[in-house]
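May I ask for a protein sequence together with how it folds?
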Amino acid sequence: MKRPPKDTEASARMITRRGLILGASQIGFMGLLGLRMRYLQVDQADQFRLLAEENRINIHLLPPARGLIHDRNGVPLAQNQQNYRVVVRREDARDLENVLLRLSNIVPLTQEDIDRIQKELRRAGPSVPVTIADRLSWEIFSEVAINAPALPGITLDVGLSRLYPLKGDLAHVVGYVGPVSDYDLSKLEDPDPLLRIPRFQIGKFGVEAKTEMELRGTAGTKRVEVNATGRIIREIDRKEGDPGNALQLTIDARLQNYAHKRLEGLSASAIVMDVRNGDLLACASAPSFDPNKFVKGISVPDYRELTEDKYRPLASKTVQDRYPPGSTFKMITLLAALDAGVISAEETIRCRGHIEMGGRRFHCWKRGGHGNVNLHNSLKKSCDVYYYELAQRVGIDKIAEMAKLFGFGQKFDVPLSAVSSGTAPNKEWKQRVYQKPWVIGDSLNASIGQGFVLATPLQVAVLSARLATGRSVSPRLIASVNGVQEPPRSGEPLGLNENHLRYVRKAMFGVCNETGGTGYGSRIVEDAYRMAGKSGTSQTRSRVVNNANAPWEERDHALFTAFGPYENPSIAVAVVVEHGGGGSSAAAPVVRDIALQAFYGGNPPLSAYPAKDRARISAQQEEYEAHIPPFLKQKSDRA
C-alpha cells in the first residue's frame, strides 16, 4: 500500500533529527577521546615515560672503596685487596638447592653456609646480590666461570675486601670490619642504603668503627635493563662512587711492632706519646689477635680460644682497662701539697715503716722505714709514709682536683673503642657512688694511688707528658684526613708554679739516674737520652701478697712511666704489666727499651744500656731483627 506523501515527509524529518543527534553524540565522544589521548600522550608524556623506564630499568648500588689507613710514615695499616666471590640473586635462582649442590663440588660449602645464604635471600630484595662465597682463589674462581652454564642464577663478582698487613700489631688501634648485622641496623634511625646490601662490611672496632662515616665513602650506581620477569638483560651504564677518606695515624708502625715484640709473653700494655703535640706513637696491648680472622668470619673455636685466654687478648688494655696507678700517682699528691703550701722542698718527714691511723696500721713498702725523707728522696725512694702525711695535710678534694688537671678521671677524645675515664675520687664521689662518707683511711690509700683511684695506661702517659711540658697536652691519634693535617693537641699551660714542677721533674730524674732510685737498674747510660720516671706497684687484693709465691692472678700490677730526654723532652712512655710484681723490676726495663727505640728510630747502640744488660739486649735485638717485617726495616722519621 502506497504511503501518503505527508507521512513520508514526517518520517524523513524524524530520521534526519535522530541522525543529527547520533552524529553529534559520536562527534562529541570522539572529541572527548581525542582530548583524553592528547592529555595522556602530550601533557602526561613525561610521567608515563618515567613509569615505563622504571619498569624496564633497575638501579643497583655499587659499594665504594673503603678509605685506606696508613701510619705516620706511610706504612699501610688497612688496605683493600681484590676479592673474588660468587653471588646469587633471588630473581635468577630457580632450583637453588640443586644449584648449590652442584656448586659445592667446586666451592666448599657447609650446611651453615647454605642456611646463611637462604636466610639472606629471604631478607634481601629479588635483585639484591647475596654472597655465596668470597675470598676465592683464582683457580676456584676460574672453575666456577667455566661451569657457569650449568649453574643458573650464579654470577661471578670481583670486589674489595679489607686486609690488615701487620695483623696483631694494630688490632686494638685500627680494629677491624665485619658484615652489617641486624643489631647494627637497629641502632640507626635512617640507615644508609648501602648497609642493606647483604654482607656489606662496616667498622666494628677501633678506628675502623669510630671513623666509619669518613672511611665508608658514598655509593655508586649501575643501571641495568630488565625484562618483564625482572631478569637482567644488559648493563646500560655505571657511575662509580666516591671512595672513603684516607686516614693517616700518628702511630709509628715500626715502634708499635717493637713494643708488641717487647711485651711478648706478658699481659701488658704500652703507650708512647709525643709530649710536644700529643701524637700517640705507639699504643700496644698484649697479647693481641689477628683482625683478618674477623673480616673473613672468625670460627667458633678461634673465638673461644680468644675469650678463654686468661691474658684477655680481645681487651684494649691501653684505654679500656683501669688499674690502681700505685706510686706513679705520688707526683699528683706531691703537687697538690706544694700548691696548697703545706710542704716545702726542704722539709723532712720521718718514716718508721708505718703510721697508725684510726686503729689501723698503714705500712710503707719498706717495712724498716726510710728514716727522715725530704721531697726529692720521697719520690726517688718511693716512701709511702711521706705521702700518708701529705694526704692528711692537704685533703682528698685538693688531691682529686690536681689529679683531674693531669688527666685522671677524664675520657680522652681518641677514636678507639671502650675508652675509659678512670676515677679521680673525692668526698662527693664516694657519697654519690657508695652512699658512704669519706674517711681518712681513704685519703691515705688514694695518696699512693690505691683505694678508689683508677687510671688507664693512656692517662698515666698523659701524666708524664704534662709533667714534662707544664701544658695540658692531650693524646692525638689521627694525623691527617685526605692529606689535611689535624691540629696538634699541645694544650694550654697548666697554670702551676714552675718551681714546683721542677722539684718533681728533678726527683723523677733521681728515680732513674741516682743510686738508690727505684728505676736506677733500668737507666739509660747515654747522656743525651736520660729519662725521668717513676715506678708503681699496685695491689690487686686488699691484703699484701708475696709476689714470688702467689698465683699469677693475685700478684701486684707493675707500672712505670717516664719522659725524656730530660733536658729537652720529646716523648712520654707508660707501661703496665698485669700481675707483673714490682714496677721497678717488671715494667721499668720495658719502658727503657721502648724509649730507646723511639729515640733512635730503630735498634740503639749497646752503649746506651748499662753494661750488665748489653749481652741480653744484643740477643734480644738479633731476635727482633730476624722477625721484623721487611717493609718496616727502614728507619722511622724519629731517627
